[in-house]
Inverse folding.
C-alpha cells in the first residue's frame, strides 16, 4: 500500500480527507467552466436581434425536458440513498439504489437522444441560429458530463464495487460519496440549463 | 524564434539553413509563414514551455519535498495530467506537418479571422488537452499542500515557494475553465458552423460569409483575457517563489516581510481576476469599463511592488554569496522591475491608445517572462540540481552562462521599447519596412537579431554544464547550500515514492538563518 496519508481518515486540522477536498476543487473549476458558458449565453442573448432567442427557444420540447428534470432529481435522491445504505453496511440496498440512479441517468440520455434526433429531422442544427448553437453546446457538454458520471457509477456497480467493499467498506463509501458529489453537481447544472434554455 | 528574428532583420531574403521549409517560395518567408511562427511561438512558450516547467516540473517535484510529504496526493491524477499534456503537445507539434499547417492567428486567436484561417482546429484541440492537463495538475498541487504538510508545518512555516505554488494553482483552476469554454465555442464555430463569434454581415476575403451571424468577436476577447491575465501571474508567481528561496539562502537572512509578501500575493491572485479588460481598451467597450479596468490595473501593481521591495530589502545587510543561482535570482529583480514598470503606461487607457499593439507591449511582457521568469527558472535549476541528481553544477560554466545571457537578453528586448515608442506595430512579417514612421528605428532589428543569436550561443555553456555534470560522479551531499528548508534533509536524489529516509517533523519557520546563539548560521526546519 502507498504511504500517502489522509486517503480515508480526516486530517485533524483541516477536517477533510484528500478526495473530498479534491472533488470540491474539481467542482469549483467545473463551476467556472459552465459559468463561462452561461455568461457567454447572456452576452449572446443581449447581442442577438430582438426576439430571436424567444423564437428559436419556442421550438424546444418543454414536456420532455420537464420529464428529464424530474428524472435527474430522482437520480440524485437515489444516489444519496445508495451512499447512506453503504454507510449502514447494507450492500444489497446500496446496489439497488445505485442501479436506480444508473437507470435514471440512462433514461435521461434516451430522452435527450429523442430530442436531438427530432431536431435534426426538422432540419434544425447548431448552425441554424445562435440560440440553437448555444443550446446544443451547453446540453451537449452536459450530456458528456452525464456520460462520464454514468461510466464511474457503472464501474462501482459492477463486481469491482463488491470486491472493493469486501476489502474495505469505508473505501467504497468514500468513492461513492465523492462520485455522488459530482453527480449532484451535474444535476445542478441541468437545473440551471432547463429554465434558461426551455423556459426563458 | 531565431527564424522570426532573422526574417525581421533581413526581410524578403532567403533564409539560410531552414529555407527548405519555405521551399515553394524559394526559401523566402511568406507572411502566412511568419504568422504561423508567431502564433506557435507564443503558444509553445507559454502553454508547452513555461507553465509545464514552472508548475508541472518545479511544482510537482518540489512541493512534496518542501512540505515533507512522501508523494503528491493523487499519483494517478498526476499521471493523467502528464499524459494529457503529452497528447496536447503532440497535437500542437504535429499540426506543423499537416497539409493545413499550424495555427496562424496569434496565440490570442482572435475571431473572426481565427474562424477562417487554417490550422486553428488542431490548435483548439491541442489547447483543450493542455488546459485539462493544467487543471488536473493544479488540483493535485492544492490538495497536496493543504493535506500532506508534515506534522508541525503550519501555514506560516511554509516556504514562500509553496505559497506561490498554491496561489498559482488556484489561478489555474479558476481561470483556465473559461478558456476551455471559449475554445469549445470556437471549435463549434469552425466545425459545426455556429456563429458565436461571427457578427452579422461579415465579409471575408471579398465574399459574404454564410453564417447565421449575430455573434460577437468581443465575447472571445473577454473569455480569453479572463484566463490570459491570470495566466501572466501563473507565469510570474512560481518565478517569484524560486527567487525568494534563493535570496533567503544566499543572503543568510530571513526574507524581509515574509508575511506581508504572502498577503500581497494572495491579494494579487484575487485581483488578477478583475483586470482582464486592460487588454481591450481599444475595442470600444466604453468609458466606464475602461475606467474600471484602469483602476483595478493600477491597484494590482501595488502587491507586485510590495514583493519586489521586500526582496530588495532582504538584500540589505546580508552577507551575500554570489553563486550562479544567486546571480540569476538577483538579476531577476531589476529585469522584472523593468517589465512591471513598463506595464503601468499600458494600464492607463489614455497612453495605451498609443502603445497598444506596438513593440512596446512585446518589450513589456518579454521583460517579465524572459529575463524575468526564464532567469528565475535557470536560478532554480542551478539551485536544485544537486537535490535532483546529487551533483552540483560547475560554477565557472554557470557564470559563463549567466553574464552573456544577461547582456544579450537586454540586447534583444531593450530596443523593442524604442521601436514601440516610435509607433512600430507588432506582428508584421517584414518588420514594418513599408511604413515611413518606422524607417528611423528599423536599423535596430539587425542589432536585436545578432543579440538573439548570441543569446542562443550563450546557452551552450549551460547545456555543456548539464551533460558534464551528469557524467561526473555523484557526491550525494544532502544540503550543499547550507539551507534550512525541508527538501534538503532528504537524500539526494530523494527516494522514489517516499522521498525521505526518516520521519519528518517540523520545528522552525522556513528561513532561520544567522539565528543568534546557534553554532551554525542556519537552523533547518526539521532539526529541533
Ligand atoms: C505590474 C504589473 C503589470 C501591469 C500594470 C501590466 C499591464 C499590461 C497591459 C495594460 C497590457 C496590455 C497592453 C496592450 O495590449 O495594449 C499588458 C500586456 C501583457 N502583459 Fe502585462 N502588466 C503587468 C505585469 C505583467 C506580468 C507580470 C506579466 C507576465 C508574466 C505580463 C505579461 C503580459 C503579456 C504576455 C502581455 C501581452 C499579451 C498580448 O497582447 O499578446 N504583464 N500588460
Ligand atoms: Cu493583463
Amino acid at each position: 500500500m502507498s504511504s500517502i496519508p489522509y486517503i480515508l481518515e480526516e486530517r485533524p486540522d483541516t477536517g477533510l480527507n484528500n478526495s473530498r477536498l479534491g472533488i470540491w476543487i474539481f467542482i469549483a473549476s467545473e463551476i467556472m467552466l459552465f459559468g463561462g458558458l452561461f455568461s457567454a449565453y447572456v452576452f449572446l442573448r443581449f447581442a442577438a436581434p430582438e426576439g430571436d432567442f424567444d423564437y428559436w427557444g419556442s421550438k424546444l420540447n418543454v414536456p420532455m425536458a420537464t420529464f428529464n428534470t424530474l428524472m435527474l432529481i430522482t437520480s440524485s435522491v437515489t444516489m444519496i440513498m445508495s451512499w447512506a445504505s453503504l454507510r449502514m453496511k447494507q450492500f444489497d440496498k446500496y446496489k439497488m439504489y445505485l442501479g436506480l440512479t444508473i437507470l435514471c441517468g440512462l433514461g435521461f440520455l434516451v430522452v435527450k437522444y429523442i430530442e436531438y434526433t427530432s431536431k435534426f429531422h426538422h432540419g434544425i442544427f447548431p448552425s441554424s441560429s445562435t440560440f440553437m448553437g448555444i443550446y446544443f453546446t451547453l446540453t451537449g457538454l452536459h450530456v458528456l458530463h452525464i456520460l462520464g458520471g454514468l461510466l464511474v457509477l457503472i464501474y462501482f456497480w459492477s463486481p469491482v464495487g463488491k470486491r472493493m467493499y469486501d476489502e474495505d467498506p469505508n473505501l467504497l463509501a468514500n468513492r461513492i460519496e465523492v462520485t455522488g458529489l459530482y453527480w449532484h453537481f451535474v444535476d445542478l447544472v441541468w437545473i440551471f440549463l432547463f429554465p434558461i434554455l426551455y423556459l426563458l | 524564434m531565431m527564424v522570426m528574428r532573422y526574417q525581421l532583420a533581413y526581410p524578403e531574403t532567403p533564409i539560410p539553413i531552414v529555407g527548405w521549409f519555405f521551399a515553394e517560395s524559394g526559401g523566402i518567408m511568406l507572411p502566412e509563414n511568419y504568422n504561423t511562427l508567431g502564433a506557435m511561438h507564443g503558444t509553445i512558450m507559454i502553454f508547452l514551455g513555461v507553465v509545464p516547467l514552472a508548475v508541472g516540473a518545479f511544482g510537482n517535484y518540489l512541493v512534496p519535498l518542501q512540505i515533507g510529504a512522501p508523494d503528491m496526493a493523487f499519483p494517478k491524477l498526476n499521471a493523467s495530467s502528464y499524459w494529457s499534456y503529452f497528447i496536447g503537445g503532440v497535437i500542437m507539434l504535429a499540426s506543423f506537418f499537416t497539409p493545413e499547417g499550424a495555427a496562424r492567428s496569434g496565440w490570442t486567436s482572435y475571431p473572426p479571422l481565427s474562424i477562417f484561417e487554417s490550422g486553428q482546429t488542431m490548435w483548439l484541440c491541442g489547447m483543450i488537452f493542455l488546459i485539462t492537463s493544467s487543471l488536473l495538475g493544479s488540483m493535485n498541487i492544492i490538495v497536496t499542500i493543504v493535506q500532506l504538510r508534515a506534522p508541525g508545518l503550519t501555514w506560516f512555516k511554509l516556504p514562500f515557494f509553496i505559497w506561490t505554488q498554491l496561489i498559482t494553482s488556484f489561478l489555474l483552476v479558476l481561470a483556465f475553465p473559461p478558456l476551455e469554454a471559449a475554445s469549445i465555442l470556437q471549435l463549434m464555430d469552425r466545425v459545426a458552423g455556429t456563429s458565436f463569434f461571427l457578427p452579422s454581415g461579415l465579409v471575408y476575403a471579398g465574399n459574404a460569409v454564410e453564417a447565421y451571424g449575430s455573434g460577437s468577436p468581443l465575447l472571445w476577447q473577454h473569455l480569453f483575457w479572463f484566463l490570459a491575465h491570470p495566466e501572466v501571474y501563473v507565469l510570474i508567481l512560481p518565478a517569484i517563489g524560486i527567487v525568494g528561496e534563493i535570496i533567503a539562502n544566499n543572503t543568510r537572512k530571513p526574507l524581509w516581510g515574509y508575511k506581508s509578501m504572502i498577503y500581497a500575493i494572495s491579494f494579487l491572485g484575487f485581483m488578477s481576476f478583475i483586470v482582464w479588460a486592460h487588454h481591450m481598451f481599444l475595442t470600444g467597450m466604453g468609458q466606464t469599463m475602461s475606467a474600471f479596468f484602469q483602476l483595478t490595473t493600477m491597484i494590482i501593481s501595488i502587491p507586485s511592488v510590495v514583493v519586489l521591495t521586500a526582496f530588495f530589502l532582504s538584500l540589505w545587510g546580508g552577507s551575500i554569496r554570489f553563486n550562479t543561482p544567486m546571480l540569476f535570482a538577483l538579476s531577476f529583480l531589476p529585469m522584472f522591475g523593468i517589465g512591471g514598470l513598463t506595464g503601468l503606461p499600458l494600464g492607463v487607457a489614455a497612453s495605451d491608445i498609443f502603445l497598444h499593439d506596438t513593440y512596446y507591449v512585446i518589450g513589456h511582457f518579454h521583460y517579465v517572462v524572459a529575463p524575468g521568469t526564464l532567469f528565475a527558472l535557470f536560478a532554480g535549476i542551478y539551485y536544485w540540481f544537486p537535490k535532483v541528481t546529487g551533483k552540483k553544477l560547475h560554477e565557472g560554466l554557470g557564470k559563463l552562462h549567466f553574464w552573456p545571457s544577461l547582456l544579450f537578453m537586454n540586447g534583444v528586448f531593450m530596443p523593442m521599447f524604442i521601436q514601440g515608442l516610435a509607433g512600430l506595430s507588432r506582428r508584421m512579417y517584414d518588420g514594418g519596412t513599408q511604413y515611413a514612421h518606422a524607417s528611423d528605428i528599423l536599423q535596430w532589428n539587425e542589432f536585436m537579431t545578432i543579440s538573439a543569436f548570441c543569446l542562443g550561443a550563450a546557452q551552450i555553456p549551460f547545456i555543456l554544464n548539464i551533460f558534464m555534470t551528469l557524467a561526473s560522479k555523484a557526491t550525494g551531499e544532502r544540503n550543499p547550500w547550507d539551507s534550512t528548508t525541508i527538501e534538503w534533509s532528504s537524500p539526494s536524489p530523494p527516494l522514489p515514492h517516499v522521498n525521505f529516509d526518516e520521519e519528518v517533523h517540523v520545528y522552525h519557520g522556513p528561513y532561520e538563518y544567522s539565528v543568534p546563539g546557534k553554532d551554525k548560521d542556519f537552523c533547518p526546519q526539521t532539526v529541533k
